[in-house]
Known about the structure:
Two copies of one chain form a homodimer.
Chain A: H1 6-18, H2 33-44, E1 55-60, H3 63-81, H4 86-94, E2 105-111, H5 129-147, E3 150-155, H6 160-166, E4 174-183, H7 192-195, E5 208-210
Antiparallel strand pairs in A: 1-2, 2-4, 3-4
Helix pairs in contact in A: 1-5, 2-5
Amino acid sequence: MTTYPPEELAGVYRAIRERRDVRSGFRPDPLPQDLVLRLLQSAHQAPSVGLMQPWRFILIRSEEIRRAVHVIFQQASAEEHQAYSGQRAQLYAKLTLQGILTAPLNLCVVCDATSSHGHSLGRHTMPETALYSAVCAIQNLWLAARAEGVGIGWVSILDPDYIKSLLKIPPSVALVGYFCMGYVDHFAPEPELESVGWERRLSLEDVLRSETFDQPWKGTGKP
Amino acid sequence: MTTYPPEELAGVYRAIRERRDVRSGFRPDPLPQDLVLRLLQSAHQAPSVGLMQPWRFILIRSEEIRRAVHVIFQQASAEEHQAYSGQRAQLYAKLTLQGILTAPLNLCVVCDATSSHGHSLGRHTMPETALYSAVCAIQNLWLAARAEGVGIGWVSILDPDYIKSLLKIPPSVALVGYFCMGYVDHFAPEPELESVGWERRLSLEDVLRSETFDQPWKGTGKP
């Protein structure tokens, strides 16, 4: 049998179910180094196309850098805010969208698609799988962090070129994601965007198809 | 405390460490429907930008469709093979790169970035985060599957346009990944691409940076 014992299986499902995008409530105490390395090791165990391992993790504690990132966020968020009007613009103004300065650790995940590691296997027809490998690493990190009581928030309201310039990331290396990390005393029972009324969760059936994209899920058929 | 009890925490780390890209050894017996839905529910609990939930899951059991996908794979793999020469071309010929016909279930994950769900929040500066949300869903699925004894293999050696045409996926919807799924009696202790000598795993230190991309990891500093 290759199935895990019940407690271990429950842990996997629990982390998946209880993981949240955390933007507030970070405790200021630094994350222990052995914990951070354990989380990053989990990220590093992600699948990658051709065993390319194109992910690179930039750990950012510098307050100077984080302040500069925060300015880049403020610019992008002000522009995004202008894309909304009426009640939705009012709702946008109330959202907490990042914890760049309040979280003790920031993390920038980039993808070095120029690396010869992996010898391009699997990337001739779908080169974007290098980027997707880095995203798999992010999700590993996120789940391990949840199980360890560490909150992670993904900040996408940033101009990638400004971040790349600030963090001295070469043009050939792609910014995949920017994250805030820290201990939290509480994880919300549901996504904040759901509880504040920004968006509702879809049912599973809404996102399933049978055999081809145009065929709705047939709940009675064998999947 | 928001940390999980030891057995649940161990389960999370174990799934991350023991997950493999499975291309062979699939058992032919179908996966029970409740299991498949449990795995897809895990995928559906992934983070998504603006709570957009842009992933759509096409479950494919039809042998006719799988045969057509297999032909598309063979074409792409023959072309990829030609990109190598000498010993590496010989090694490529020995790799098992897919289980399209041997696995009882195939899954195509697509991203509907045209969906108005999420109201574009977080996508004004980084629209690619819609695709990345779908990849997070894939990694959730992969980890839950490992814990359940289900092998998953990602097939990227496919022409996306041919697959989209075959599966009636509209041009505006992106193919993110194509997968083979089934019970396996055994998971390899290390990635196959490592054991056959295609590529080696990097050390964690190789992929860490401090503060900016050009600064190597300072192991003695506080991360």
